[in-house]
Design a protein that fits this description.
Distance between the termini: 30 Å
Largest sheet: 9 strands, mixed
Strand content: 15-25%
Order of helices and strands: EEEHEHEHEHEHEEEEEHHHEH
Radius of gyration: 18 Å
Number of strands: 13
Number of helices: 9
Shape: globular
Length: 258
């Protein structure tokens, strides 16, 4: 059944790059008989997107997708980021400036389709936002203090104030000898790496100069905040399944889907 609150005809674009330092040929890694990027696209097709497109940097990825009935585009190999590849894909698809595009990472074969819908919906509901994303509550102190876990803080309207690898919000009174001894209350939020954009903003984003805070934190979304754009955040109660960054991650997901 179609959800009337979703933007009409939103598009999912899955950027896929063959080179990966930690897991070579990652998009084509076999997961229970299918390439990982095909698994991701199949999950996205369970959302209410009107089209799901893989934006690839290599013809082998395009061929693997087409062999399994997944729409795919060949994009340039010299893009410095996934958002640059998305911008080219939007141009190739001829999307209008106000079209809603959801960027699903190509290494998320267990992503919940409902989460894709929610990220599209929250952007459509917030015309003042240029982007949308998602987050969920952190349940462990180890996650809160782990710099590989990106945290987000929001304002009263669930607009992002800041993203950081540091434990934010910093709980002044929750420390002993300089270390946190418990999680803040309410629970801090872990950022989930899925984004919604309007196609017009995606065309503009690669032209924005990188921000000092973006370079320091190595978080591309901080460029949008630095230049005055708003990012709406959907808070989900269900954490998405594990992504695939390393051979160990791949083995874990292969076992889950075996």
């Amino acid at each position: 059944m179609t959800d009337p609150t979703l933007p009409q005809g939103f598009t999912v674009v899955i950027p896929a790059r063959l080179a990966s330092s930690r897991l070579p040929n990652k998009p084509l890694a076999d997961i229970a008989g299918l390439p990982m990027v095909v698994r991701v696209a199949q999950r996205a097709l369970l959302s209410q997107a009107s089209q799901v497109v893989v934006a690839a940097d290599d013809a082998r990825i395009v061929q693997a997708c087409l062999a399994h009935g997944i729409q795919a585009l060949l994009t340039r190999q010299d893009h410095v980021s996934g958002s640059d590849r998305l911008a080219e894909a939007c141009q190739l698809l001829g999307l209008s400036a106000d079209a809603v595009v959801v960027n699903v990472q190509g290494d998320e074969p267990l992503i919940p389709p409902a989460l894709i819908n929610d990220v599209a919906r929250v952007l459509a509901e917030r015309p003042e936002a240029s982007m949308s994303t998602a987050a969920h509550a952190i349940a462990s102190l180890a996650e809160f203090t782990n710099p590989n876990v990106v945290k987000v803080v929001m304002d009263a309207r669930q607009m992002a104030l800041y993203f950081s690898r540091a434990p934010i919000p910093w709980w002044r009174d929750g420390q002993t000898d300089g270390s946190f001894n418990a999680l803040p209350n309410p629970a801090p939020l872990r950022h989930i790496g899925i984004y919604g954009y309007r196609a017009g903003f995606l065309a503009q984003f690669p032209t924005l100069p990188p921000a000092p805070i973006e370079t320091m934190e190595s978080l591309e979304q901080l460029r949008a905040l630095w230049h005055g754009h708003r990012i709406a955040v959907h808070v989900t109660h269900e954490a998405p399944g594990p992504g695939v960054d390393t051979p160990e991650d791949l083995a874990r997901v292969q076992a889950l889907l075996a």
